[in-house]
Amino acid sequence: MIILFVVAVIVLADRFNEHRQFVNQLDTLGQDAWALVVTGERSSVGIYVTFRDAADAERAGFVRPQYYSEERLQTVKAGAEIRVRYLPAQYASYVVLSDQLETVRAYRGYATDVLLALAFSWLWIVIYPDFLYLGYVDDNQYIWQRRFK
Amino acid sequence: MTLAGFIFFLLGVFVELLWLYDLAHPSAGQTVWPRALQLSKTRPTQAWAALLFIIALGLVGLLRLVGWDTASVSLDDNWVGVIFVGLGLFLLAAGLIADLLVPRVNESIILGVLLMGLFDLLVRPPEVWSPVVWGLGGLQAGLALLLIFYSQPLSLTGRALAYLIYLLTLFCQAFFRPDTTTLFTLAELNWREAFLFGAVFVFLLLHALLFLRFVLIVSSLILPANRPLLVYIIPRLFSTEQVALWRVAAACAVLIVVLVVNRFTGLVADSLLVSFSLAAGVQALLRPGFGRRADTI
Fold first, then answer.
1. Which terminus has fewer CB within 10 Å in chain B: N or C?
2. What is the chain A residue with the closest CA to B101?
């Protein structure tokens, strides 16, 4: 459980940094374009769209549906034209809806499952904290007696 | 990072591990080091550090002869990955399930780290003064003032909280201040920076892991049944010996002068030297020969 807690903290920090970096890049490097929703199907990667970038090159991108409300996603249907913000190709193929930047910035859904793991492991450790003291107690007998009494 | 730089990085890692082990086991020279490994009867750790330094110099010399010293090394290389995984697992075990490398600190050392952390915050302010930064700065300043003006030794709970803030300061230094992972990708790290980076990497990563462990320990005290366990851990983390306040102030002053001089000379990256100053300051103040110990601050 201690390892689970540590791993969960690392994963949470990693996801937080990744999201923050993505949003910062959208602010500094992002450009807006009109995109065509190709199928409207929500795959594991996202909703597939195509657009022309500033260099007039044809590019593909994905809209992550988890950022937006169901109501807003109703407009992202096959054949629809939507305004998106994209990053240079070497950064990411994900695009976001231009009018929803603040929603994307405030998105914290990436933390839900990790926070559950954190809460579960923390609660377990609070109830059974004995292993935290391994290496710090000369007479481990006390820990084991307490643990298994 | 270049291959030569990576060798000095590893030298920094191993030398720091030796120093930490030495501090965590003050009598290591007499009891723990096997007789065959005692290069010196009185100073085995220093002898090993010197030997490692000579080996590193020899390796870099050899690499230079064959023209491989400037070859690029990255975390994506398999053999580098294996070294890092091994090091990470070792530190994970050392930080989470043992007290193999953790030196026992005292109130005056915590005060020194807090003062250095505050100095760094003022000299290199963050881009945004968010409530989190204000909160952390306020905690550090509050505890520093308490340690300066409250001359009595802290209670068990007080020591636990002070130790938590000390670890939090080091944790933030590791992950939010110097951006140590960026340093690894810099190709132009010179041998001094690579060595310091290795030493800082081990010190801060170990304390960051210990921070997570200690957060769990402190938060588990919400159950009254767990509170007696604190008696077992605090004596292993805290030393009752103190360093006189003027010695802490002198150490901080010396480190600040070093930082200022470095800023003008540009010998190593500022952020790296600040982190190394924290690590070196803690370890220097813990040396038995540093000066007379007083009973209280």
1. C
2. A135
If pLDDT is split at 50, 70 and 90, which confidence band does A114 have? very high
Q: How far is B25 from chain A (nearest CA, A)?
A: 14
**Total number of domains constituting chain A:** 1
CA distances from B154 to A45, B110, B162, B207 (A): 54, 12, 9, 22
How far lies B22's CA from each of B39, B46, B47, B61, in Å?
Answer: 14, 10, 12, 29
Chain B closest-CA separation from residue A78 CA (Å):
40
Round to whole Å and give the CA distance between A133 and B225.
14
Answering whether pTM is above 0.80, one says no
> Of B29, B6, B31, B7, whose CA–CA distance to B18 is shortest?
B29
CB-nearest partner of B222 from A126, A133, A135: A126
Query: What are phi and psi for residue B13, nearest 5 degrees?
Result: -60, -50
pLDDT at B271 over 90: no
Question: Band of the pLDDT at B296, cuts 50, 70, 90?
Answer: very low
Show Cβ contacts of residue B142 under 8 Å, excluding neighbours closer than 6 positions. none
Range in A54-68, A132-146, B38-52 the model is least confident about: A132-146
For A115, the domain range is 2-148
Residue A31: the pLDDT is: 87
Q: Which chain A residue has the Cα nearest residue B236?
A: A136
Q: Does B83 touch chain A (CB under 8 A)?
A: no
Would the ipTM clear 0.90, i.e. be above it? no
Q: Does A141 touch chain B (CB under 8 A)?
A: no
Helix (H) or strand (E) holding B131: helix B131-149
CATH of residue A63: 2.40.50.140
A6, A16, A122, best to mutate vs chain B, most B CBs in 10 Å:
A6
Tell me if B48 sits within 8 A of B39, measured CB to CB: yes
Cα of B157 to nearest chain A Cα, Å: 16
- Would an 8 Å CB–CB cutoff place A124 in contact with chain B? no
Q: Which of residues 204-263 of B touch A (CB under 8 A)?
A: 209, 212-213, 216-217, 219-220, 222-223, 226, 229, 232-233, 236-237
Q: Report d(CA B164, CA B146) in Å as an integer.
A: 15
Whether the CB of A137 is below 8 Å from some CB of chain B: the reply is: yes
Query: What tens digit of pLDDT does each residue of B59-110 get?
Result: 888 888 887 777 777 777 888 888 888 888 888 887 767 777 887 888 888 8
Domain ranges, ordered by start, for chain B: 3-286
